[in-house]
Amino acid sequence: MEEEAKVVELMGKAAKLSIVKSDACGGCQACTKGRGGEMFIVAENSLGAKKGDRVRIEVDPQLVLKGSFFAYLMPIIGLITGTVLTGQVTGSEGMKVLGGIGGFIISSILIYYYFRKSDPKQSFAATITKIFG
């Protein structure tokens, strides 16, 4: 998916972009919402765009899907795994609930550290592909 955006802030090798949400955006959730319905996305700035430049970005749907999987599905898998493993050890319903909560918390912490230590270049869902000026 390609969109046009405006560079609002430079962040090292990345740029924070202001983008107008279009129909093509759907529910990908790659952008974050700002005031007044304005949407922001952080994109790899390998072309060297400057603050105020209008740019074209390309959003990689596979990276958005991968990020969504880790952010949403992995904690649920941790919850189920914690519940099942605790159920194998004990038959107590209360302990199964605690095991599920523990699995959810542990998987959430692991995901937090995974995203924190992952290579930033590979974690960008968007890349600047053209600078209009």
Q: How do the helices and strands line up, and which of them pair or pack?
A:
Elements: E1 2-11, E2 14-19, E3 32-33, E4 39-44, E5 54-59, H1 61-89, H2 93-117, H3 120-123, E6 126-131
Parallel strand pairs: 4-6
Antiparallel strand pairs: 1-2, 1-5, 2-4, 3-4, 5-6
Helix pairs in contact: 1-2
> How many angstroms separate the termini?
21 Å
Level of helix content? 40-55%
Q: What is the correct CATH architecture of the largest domain?
A: Beta Barrel
Number of strands: 6
Count helical runs.
Answer: 3
Task: Please tell me the total number of domains.
Answer: 2
Summarize the structure.
The chain is 44% helix and 27% strand.
Structure description:
The protein is an alpha+beta fold. It folds into two domains: 2-60 and 121-131, OB fold (Dihydrolipoamide Acetyltransferase, E2P) (Beta Barrel); 64-117, no CATH class. It has three helices and six strands. The longest helix has 29 residues, at 61-89. It is elongated, with a radius of gyration of 19 Å.
Keywords:
3 helices; alpha+beta; OB fold (Dihydrolipoamide Acetyltransferase, E2P); 133 residues
